[in-house]
Amino acid sequence: MKLSTYNFLTSMAIKGVKVGYPLKLTINKKDVIESEFNPVFIERLLPKLDWAAVYSAAQVAELADDIPAAQPDNMAEDEQLLQRLHHLLFEIDVLEGQLECPETGRVFPITDGIPNMLLNEDEV
């Protein structure tokens, strides 16, 4: 699972959950898969990102030194920062781990890079 995906996942479908975001991420095994850097794509993605979730993912991936805690205003002009963000969101691949609902504590496993977000019948 790419960390760009993590930024958009929620457990709001669980009965009684109001927000379900951001999920608590745990990484047990990760890989780095290089991909082509496209600064325009990253710039266009910026307004859609929840920066607190981005920074949280950076902390869990042990890359918090590369990503600022608060989103800079002039970020589109800082190509080095865009490259570090690209690395975090598109080159870190979570192979094993889990996502946890912040409201219910329900755990969703990540196996072979795929988050299993299927709910039990009584959770819907």
TrEMBL record:
Q: Does the keyword Cytoplasm apply?
A: yes
Which GO CC terms are listed, alphabetically?
nucleoplasm; perinuclear region of cytoplasm
> Which molecular function term from Gene Ontology is one that the record holds?
protein heterodimerization activity
Q: What is its main location?
A: cytoplasm
- Subcellular localization, as worded in the UniProt entry: Cytoplasm, Perinuclear region; Nucleus, Nucleoplasm
List the transmembrane segments. none
Family, per entry: Belongs to the TRM112 family.
Query: This chain belongs to which protein, by name?
Result: Multifunctional methyltransferase subunit TRM112-like protein
Per the UniProt record, the source organism is Drosophila hydei (Fruit fly)
Q: Which gene encodes it?
A: LOC111594365
